[in-house]
UniProtKB/TrEMBL annotation:
<protein>
    <recommendedName>
        <fullName>Protein DETOXIFICATION 27-like</fullName>
    </recommendedName>
</protein>
<dbReference type="GO" id="GO:0015297">
    <property type="term" value="F:antiporter activity"/>
</dbReference>
<keyword id="KW-1133">Transmembrane helix</keyword>
<dbReference type="Pfam" id="PF01554">
    <property type="entry name" value="MatE"/>
</dbReference>
<keyword id="KW-0812">Transmembrane</keyword>
<feature type="transmembrane region" description="Helical">
    <location>
        <begin position="50"/>
        <end position="71"/>
    </location>
</feature>
<feature type="transmembrane region" description="Helical">
    <location>
        <begin position="198"/>
        <end position="219"/>
    </location>
</feature>
<comment type="similarity">
    <text>Belongs to the multi antimicrobial extrusion (MATE) (TC 2.A.66.1) family.</text>
</comment>
<dbReference type="GO" id="GO:0016020">
    <property type="term" value="C:membrane"/>
</dbReference>
<feature type="transmembrane region" description="Helical">
    <location>
        <begin position="132"/>
        <end position="153"/>
    </location>
</feature>
<dbReference type="GO" id="GO:1990961">
    <property type="term" value="P:xenobiotic detoxification by transmembrane export across the plasma membrane"/>
</dbReference>
<feature type="transmembrane region" description="Helical">
    <location>
        <begin position="225"/>
        <end position="249"/>
    </location>
</feature>
<feature type="transmembrane region" description="Helical">
    <location>
        <begin position="165"/>
        <end position="186"/>
    </location>
</feature>
<feature type="transmembrane region" description="Helical">
    <location>
        <begin position="83"/>
        <end position="111"/>
    </location>
</feature>
<dbReference type="GO" id="GO:0042910">
    <property type="term" value="F:xenobiotic transmembrane transporter activity"/>
</dbReference>
<dbReference type="InterPro" id="IPR045069">
    <property type="entry name" value="MATE_euk"/>
</dbReference>
<dbReference type="InterPro" id="IPR002528">
    <property type="entry name" value="MATE_fam"/>
</dbReference>
Amino acid sequence: MPSAEAEVPLLAEYSDSAVRLKHEHHGVELSDYEDDQYLGRRVWIESKKLWHIVGPAIFSRVASYSMLVITQAFAGHLGDLELAAISIANNVIVGFDFGLLLGMASALETLCGQAFGAKKYYMLGVYMQRSWIVLFLCCILLLPLYLFASPFLKLLGQPTDVAELCGLVAMAMIPLHFSFAFQFPLQRFLQSQLKTGVIAWVSLAALIVHIFVSWFFVYRLELGVIGTAITLNFSWWVLTFGLFGYTVWGGCPITWGGFSIEAFSGLWEFIKLSAASGVMLCLENWYYRILILMTGNLQNAKIAVDALSICMTINGWELMIPLAFFAATGVRT
């Protein structure tokens, strides 16, 4: 249920017109010092509202990305070849996929924000279902990236043993690939209603599950690098079903009205809006991931790829913070 604060226009109590009328009524002219005081007060109020969204958003994004980091860390205990394979799969194949689908889901942020502000709450659920359809179709189009990862990497000059093992890992990550199509819209849908705390708690639960499952698959079942890839599938679907369960089973009674045939209308306009957002973020995200592919052409490629991928992983961890601010700013505006 959206909070009453979310329905009130931004800082209406402290708007310029309200302040002016209040002081005209008392016959007082504001000095520069008083103007600064009111500006500072408004900045403080808006900062508190922004951090109410940013704090849980940072945590949920860092927790989600940490699943990829933990998988890479477990692969590092198996050997240099395994770490190189999982690193290329995570940072190049999944990284490209992640950036494109995340950008396409950002279009939903704008539409849900407009619908929520206009009090057309029913349309939030329709927009989310429309986003599911578009992103699912995009996932199908991107499947060759996973199915033919091995010959594609060989063509780009990667070592044969790394390319072949990475191809197996990529095919094992296909369920993870499809989870993005549902998890990203669910996150935007809840975020537009200021339900960031729910996303943070579900992300924490999924992270804890991922740590346990990774340990169990790698050290108890000894499934090797393929086992580490399977853990990502399991944990990301736990996250997806957690958000979906909250949405469907009473968490959003006003904005979720069940599955609707309206989701299939206006798909072309939605595709155009999503594609523009997806390409923009993908280009920003992709250019530095090419470095990992270039590193594969160096001597002692396994060690070089391992070292660079660890640095890129740390960089991706840090990237989650500005992405959370970006999302929170979109909600507030």
